[in-house]
Amino acid sequence: MVLPNTNEEQAVFPLDRLREKLGNKEVILRDKKISVSVSIGIASVSDSEDDEAEAIHRADQVMYAAKRTGRNRAVCCELELPIKCYSAIRFCELKERRIPLLITGTLPMLRKFCRFL
């Protein structure tokens, strides 16, 4: 979903409302009721940033972090995380001993780790 002229903080409210509305629905599949939960990752693209694919990748990573830390949440990408951290994760440039921290850690742990890159 694209929300023009909206920063990450402004995007949280409508996306969290969408998450709540979808979460209150039950889907019937083959005569069984299925509860729905939604995890949303939010990332912004600045006017100077050409690479929307990178923003989508950041939102995707944050969505998976939301799933790992409790599911059914709308979570913003931390703006202060350096781009080189995302690139290192994306292109597997991290040292092997640090990978488990990123896979099992939360965003605050990731932020602390990225400051040391």
Walk me through this protein's architecture:
The chain is α+β, with helices and mostly antiparallel strands and 117 residues long. It has two domains: 1-79, Alpha-Beta Plaits, CATH 3.30.70.270; 80-117, no CATH class. The protein contains five helices and four strands, in the order αβββαβααα. It has helices spanning 8-23, 52-68, 83-90, 99-104, 107-114, and strands spanning 26-29, 32-35, 40-42, 74-76. The protein has a two-stranded antiparallel sheet with strand order 1-2. A two-stranded parallel sheet has the order 3-4. The two termini are 31 Å apart. The relative contact order is 0.13. Mean pLDDT is 68; it is low at 79-84, 93-106 and 108-117.
Query: Shape from CA axes?
Result: elongated
Helix content: 40-55%
Largest sheet: 2 strands, antiparallel
Q: Which spans have pLDDT < 50 for at least 5 consecutive residues?
A: 79-84, 93-106, 108-117
In short:
The protein is an alpha+beta fold and 117 residues long. It has two domains: 1-79, Reverse transcriptase/Diguanylate cyclase domain (Alpha-Beta Plaits, 2-Layer Sandwich), CATH 3.30.70.270; 80-117, no CATH class.
What attributes does this structure have?
Alpha-Beta Plaits; 117 residues; two-stranded antiparallel sheet; 47% helix; 2 domains; disordered C terminus
Secondary structure topology:
Elements: H1 8-23, E1 26-29, E2 32-35, E3 40-42, H2 52-68, E4 74-76, H3 83-90, H4 99-104, H5 107-114
Parallel strand pairs: 3-4
Antiparallel strand pairs: 1-2
